[in-house]
Amino acid sequence: MNGDIQNLEEKFTNSYSESVEVPFQLFGEWLALAEKNEPNDPNAMSVATVDENGMPNVRMLLLKGYSPQGFVFYTNFESTKGREILAHPKVALCFHWKSLRRQVRVRGNVIHVTEDQADEYYNSRPRKSRIGAWASKQSRPLESRFALEKEVAKYAAKYAVGDIPRPEYWSGCILEPLEIEFWHDRAFRLHDRFVFKRDSAEDQWDKVRLYP
């Protein structure tokens, strides 16, 4: 672990010429380590939104990609989550890798993936998952499990052969981060915390070490 902390210090002190890349490079290294050590879903993250009254909502999703542009996930935009993102396109993420005693917190603004990107990812999903995207009226009341199974059977018959088109209401989000915090557990709760902040997606990062 001491070597990991030294590496974090080195990333933290990199020059501004690399400032756009640094937090994403560091995130990639931490995620790769999680992929080797976490038994289930190392790309799992909590996603927080707010409703029309400012009441927060949080749930677990899977990260489907990342780059210096941001963090990518997909959703049904007719779901509670989707409607809240459309109304208030500011989102927070949190990755917690318990076995590694690390977490990454992200806050920023949401933009949408392109139609081609959404199609490409949708078509990469298992066929039954694509059927499920049609069958599930996500977040809305469901009278019984049987009713859901009927919807699945209906769309399975409708798209029994050939391609399954992507529903118009199903697409992806890119969280363009304005803040990324890296947290690493240390003894006696004297944790290491480093935060990268910027005012817009075009700006360079300001880098600060925080008290635990």
TrEMBL record:
Name of this chain's protein: Pyridoxine/pyridoxamine 5'-phosphate oxidase
Q: Which residues bind FMN?
A: R59, M60, L61, L62, L63, K64, Y74, T75, K81, Q103, Q138, S139, W183, R193
Co-factor binding details: Binds 1 FMN per subunit.
Instruction: Identify the residues that bind substrate.
Output: K64, Y121, R125, S129, R189, L190, H191
- Show the catalytic activity: pyridoxine 5'-phosphate + O2 = pyridoxal 5'-phosphate + H2O2; pyridoxamine 5'-phosphate + O2 + H2O = pyridoxal 5'-phosphate + H2O2 + NH4(+)
Q: What is its EC number?
A: 1.4.3.5
Which family does the UniProt entry place this protein in? Answer: Belongs to the pyridoxamine 5'-phosphate oxidase family.
In this chain the Pyridoxamine 5'-phosphate oxidase N-terminal domain maps to 40-156
Database matches in InterPro entries: Pyridox_Oxase, Pyridox_Oxase_CS, Pyridox_Oxase_N, Pyridoxamine_oxidase_dimer_C, Split_barrel_FMN-bd
Task: State if Flavoprotein is listed as a keyword.
Answer: yes
The prosthetic group or cofactor this protein requires is: FMN
Spell out the subunit comment.
Homodimer.
**Superkingdom classification of source:** Bacteria
Role description: Catalyzes the oxidation of either pyridoxine 5'-phosphate (PNP) or pyridoxamine 5'-phosphate (PMP) into pyridoxal 5'-phosphate (PLP).
* Domain (Pyridoxine 5'-phosphate oxidase dimerisation C-terminal): residue spans on this chain: 170-212
Query: What is the primary gene name for this protein?
Result: pdxH
Q: Which organism is it from?
A: Pseudovibrio ascidiaceicola
Biological or metabolic pathway of the protein: Cofactor metabolism; pyridoxal 5'-phosphate salvage; pyridoxal 5'-phosphate from pyridoxine 5'-phosphate: step 1/1; Cofactor metabolism; pyridoxal 5'-phosphate salvage; pyridoxal 5'-phosphate from pyridoxamine 5'-phosphate: step 1/1
**Keyword terms of this UniProt record:** Flavoprotein, FMN, Oxidoreductase, Pyridoxine biosynthesis
